[in-house]
Amino acid sequence: MDRLMRRGGSYLQEQMPALVGFCMKVLISIVVFYLGLRLIRWLVRIMRRSMEQMKVDQGVVQFACSLAKILAYLLLAFSIATRFGVTEASVAALIGSTGITLAMGLQGGLANLAGGIMILLFKPFQVGDYIVQNGLTGCEGTVSRIDMCYTRLTTIDNKTIVIPNGTLSNSSITNVTEKEERQLDVKVGISYQSDIRQAKGILERLLEEEPDIYHERETAVFVDELAKSAVVLGFRAWVPTDRYWKVKWGLNEKIKLSFDREGIEIPYEQLEVHLSKNIDG
Question: SS3 of 270, please?
Answer without folding.
Answer: coil
